[in-house]
Structures are given as structure tokens and as C-alpha cells.
Amino acid sequence: MEQTGLPPASVELYGIPSPCITRTGESWVYWEPQVFPFKDKSLDKVATALDIELQPMIHHFYTTQLAGDMKAQFQEHTLSLIQVWNEDDFIRLQENLIGHLVTQKRLKLSPTLFIATLNSDLEMISLCNLTGEIIIEKFGSKERRVVSPDLVSFIQQLNPVIEPVE
């Protein structure tokens, strides 16, 4: 907003209802973050499904606000920070986290919770559920690299990437 005078915009979220939408363009929506409105402000269903305790910060990350995914730069990586857009999206997120954790358990990998996607389909940025560190992991493998000691430090190092809407 500081750079363009407009709120963030998304082509991908056009036509998908959300309390975040402030106005609609030809094929995009302008949006602003909103306070997370749902009663269930935790990922307890994910924890219960796998009988594990989740790092406390992951609950806050996904249940503080509704927003569109946000592009950012972290070190040499351009990423898309995963956010919750609406109630259906929150349900889908929990299902995807459960699926991710089940796959890791089956492959005997330590549990992680994804928080951002990278340009690569095989790599993602995740929170290590054992240590709280932020890692880049290769999906389905033991290949992991710590990039930040915790979620707060990671977020503080992000720089927004502003993409023009066509």
C-alpha cells in the first residue's frame, strides 16, 4: 500500500469469497487482512489427528488473520507465504497439513509444518515441529536446511514483493 497506494491484489483469488475482499477488478480482487473470525483458533484438529503436540507458533501463524498468500523475498529465495483466505481454506489447510504429516510419518521423517511455497514444486519452507526452526525442505526426503532459528526471526527478514496486476 505504501508503494502503490492500493491494497494487495490477486488474480488467483478472483471469484473466491472472503471477508478480506475490499473491491473487485476485471479479473482480480483487492484485499486487506482481516482478524481471524472463526471460533476454532488453533490447529488442534491437526495435532489430534496425528497424536502430536504442535509448536505453539504455528497456531498463531495460521489463526491470527485471514489474508491472501503473500509474495516475499527471503535471502535469495522468492516465496509465497501461505495464508488462510476463508473458512473453506482453513479446513483445506488443516487437511493438507495432516496429509503432509502422515506422509512424513510413513517415510520416517521428523514432522514439519509448511508455511511457504517456493518456485520449485519439490521444495517448501516449513517450521520444524521438533525444534521450531524454519527450514527449506525437499518434499519426501531428508534434505533439509535451517534458514532461521524461529518463525518470528524468519518473518522479520522477509521483504514484500509487489507484482503488478494485469
Structure, explained:
- One of its GO terms (cellular component) is cytoplasmic side of plasma membrane.
- Keywords: Cell inner membrane, Cell membrane, Membrane.
- It comes from Providencia burhodogranariea DSM 19968.
- This is SecY interacting protein Syd.
- InterPro entries: Syd, Syd_sf.
- The structure is a single chain.
- This protein has 166 residues and is an alpha+beta fold.
- It has one domain: SMI1/KNR4-like (3-Layer(aba) Sandwich), CATH 3.40.1580.
- Helix content is 25%, strand content 29%.
- The chain has helices at 44-50, 56-63, 87-106, 151-156, and strands spanning 9-10, 21-24, 29-31, 34-35, 65-66, 70-74, 77-81, 112-118, 123-128, 134-138, 144-148, 159-160.
- It has a 7-stranded antiparallel β-sheet. Strands 1-3-2 form a 3-stranded antiparallel β-sheet, with no helix packed on it.
- β9 (123-128) and β10 (134-138) form a beta hairpin.
- α1 packs parallel to α3.
Task: Give a short summary of the structure.
The protein has 166 residues and is of the alpha+beta class.
Uncertain runs are: none
Number of strands: 12
Counting DSSP H or I runs of 4 or more residues, the number of helices is 4
- In what order do the strands lie side by side in the largest sheet? 11-10-9-8-7-6-12
CATH architecture label name: 3-Layer(aba) Sandwich
SSE string, helices as H and strands as E: EEEEHHEEEHEEEEHE
Number of domains: 1
InterPro entries: Syd, Syd_sf
Organism: Providencia burhodogranariea DSM 19968
Keywords: Cell inner membrane, Cell membrane, Membrane
Protein name: SecY interacting protein Syd
